[in-house]
């Protein structure tokens, strides 16, 4: 028996993803490269970056044009498993 997942999203849609990790020189570029693999039409210039209060961490918000739940699942899986990434929301 296959389990069917339901979603409240209607595709395609604009979907913001927040990625947090240690504030190192290559973090932002690495995150953007992963996002572009799953959402090739993402414009890196639209990524919003915000350092933590003490400057140790960086939060990057990427709003992608999501075309399916499987696309979002694959993006979340790859980002979450990356060693530089601490949290994906």
Write a brief caption for the model.
The chain has 89 residues and is an alpha+beta fold.
Structural account:
- With 89 residues, this protein is of the alpha+beta class.
- The chain is 28% helix and 31% strand.
- The protein has helices spanning 27-38, 69-81, and strands spanning 13-22, 48-51, 57-66, 85-88.
- A 4-stranded antiparallel sheet has the order 2-3-1-4, covered by helices on one side.
- A hairpin with a 5-residue loop joins β2 and β3 (57-66).
- 17% of the residues are buried.
Distinctive features:
single chain; 89 residues; alpha+beta; four-stranded antiparallel β-sheet; 31% strand
Strand tally: 4
Termini separation: 30 Å
What is the SS-derived class?
A: alpha+beta
Mean pLDDT over the full residue set: 94
Strand order in the largest sheet: 2-3-1-4
Main sheet summary: 4 strands, antiparallel
Proportion in β-strands: 25-35%
What's the total helix number? 2
Report the C-alpha radius of gyration, rounded: 14 Å
The coarse silhouette is globular
Order of helices and strands: EHEEHE
- Helicity level: 25-40%
Which regions have little confidence, pLDDT < 50, spanning 5+ residues?
none
């Amino acid at each position: 028996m296959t389990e069917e997942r339901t979603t409240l999203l209607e595709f395609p849609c604009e979907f913001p993803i927040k990625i947090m990790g240690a504030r190192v020189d290559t973090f932002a570029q690495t995150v953007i490269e992963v996002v572009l693999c799953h959402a090739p039409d993402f414009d890196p210039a639209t990524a919003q970056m915000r350092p933590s209060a003490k400057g140790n961490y960086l939060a990057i918000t990427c709003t992608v044009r999501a075309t399916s739940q499987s696309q979002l699942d694959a993006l979340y899986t790859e980002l979450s498993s990356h060693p530089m990434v601490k949290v994906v929301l």
